Model the fold of this input.
Amino acid sequence: MPERVHTFQGQNFHKLRRACLRRGALFKDPLFPTTAQSLFYKREPPPGLTWRRPREICKDPRLFVDGISTRDLHQGSLGNCWMVAAISCLASEPSLWKKVIPDHMDQEWNPKNLNLYAGIFHFRFWRLGRWLDVVVDDRLPVSRDGALLFCRSATPREFWSALLEKAYAKLNGCYEALEGGNTAEALIDFTGGVSEPLSLDRKALTRHCEQRRAFFQTLAKAHERKALITCSIRSVESVLDCGLVRGHAYGITAVRKVRLGETLQKNGEVCRLFMVRMRNPWGTTDWTGAWSQGSQQWQQMSRAEREKTGLIVRDVGEFWMDFQDFCHYFTDVVVCRLVERTLLWPRSHWREEREQGGWEAQVDKRSRCGGCINHRDTFLHNPQFMFEVTGKEEEMLICLQQEDRRIWRKDGGGENLPIGFEVLKVEVNRSSRVHVTLRGTLAPGGYVVLPTTFLPGTTGRFLLRLFSHSCIRLRCMFELTDFRSGGLVQLHIHYHMNDTIRTRVFKAEGNPEFNLRAIFYRRRPNTHISIELWSRGLLWDSVLGGARLKTAESEKSRSHVVDLRRGQSRSGHRGCVYVETSSSVCLTDL
Done:
């Protein structure tokens, strides 16, 4: 099911192109001009820098030369290997790059009819749940020696990578805003997928063969399902003795388990290799260890045997590594899993639900930016979203994404917020809280997701995405004013008919804090405690919703989010109330 595409900054590519062709003039983008502000926000442009159109750089420019491949990208003078590595992964999958570079044949130069060229291109990026169409002109920054200053292709007359980088720079404010980023962010921007960062336990993976093989199978399965994978070595940028670069992003272009031929068998026994093929965005092969270019391992294999096993190098900058060496050096892996939004999907694929929201500051207690769970007084003032797992256990993938603030870097801001979320289990007769970072298996029941910033009062926008294999609906929980309860509400808590505690009456607005404490003596520990939300009227009172709470025989400060309902239907949901319970056979413990 194709998703709607939105124009970025109100620029419609087709209208602008037609206007330029009518005037017989090449497009000049007024929103991303050829000035220093489009290049940098801190440093000055290098001496001799000029902006040139592709026809001023070479005689026969093309968007693509012999198609598109990972060898088309070489990082320029920007520290944006994170972006270049992501684009390298993108280039290996036609169904993905054709989304980012739409109508690629129509955008190509037509040497037989140059009058149809208007000097305008457009590219698409996924931001906070929407595909944005970004328009750019073809004027590119060129250094004093006549070479492109930033990203360039190995073929001098090919310009798709340079123009794509320009569009991404425009989306983020300027070229310098692309320095120092996260490959996981770029993969999401280019695919709309879900990036799952994996931190490697190098000691365990190096020492324990079974753990290493299990992790290899995880990567192999992800690669087989067209996931995009990158890796890096944590720490500041520096070169290791083996040739790998710390703080630098590499793309993983193949994951293979191969059976060696007779020439490499050990003592006549069948030997299997677990191999990964890497690509350096710089277009150079740095690795000097086993299976590096010219190593003795390759010299023992014939060309035919390499092709038979698939151990071939396709592009400049690619190299192979044994997986044990990979686990020894690399510390971080990012797997970007792709999700198709279709009406019909295989059971093995993820199905997505998404909700947009924001942390909003207000002058009263209805503020929606309560901070993380460390701030218990305000934590429940965050936006809340509910879903239910029915039937059997369900593997879930939950992703919280904030609005990218990189575009504000040139104004002195641009730092992303520290964010997270808590998943609270609503059903009262099970575990009260499940902490989930990204992936987990949840038992049947109701759950509430609370996206949070670290500190209360921090504002921003976010996108919450929930992935499951079955049909699970994610819905926003609204404040009491949406329940039209009649204006006044009161909470009743009772153990049996003659033992009831009532709160004072509250106005049905915002999130009332009942702050009620009560002690009940339970003769039978298995008996439930009932909680009811009542509407107070002039003539009579009525029950809005209720729930039953079951506590353990001995517990201390156990948290519950109790789902208040009227009836069994989904429309009967009336909200949630936060309850903390303690239970003991000794009264002084309470």
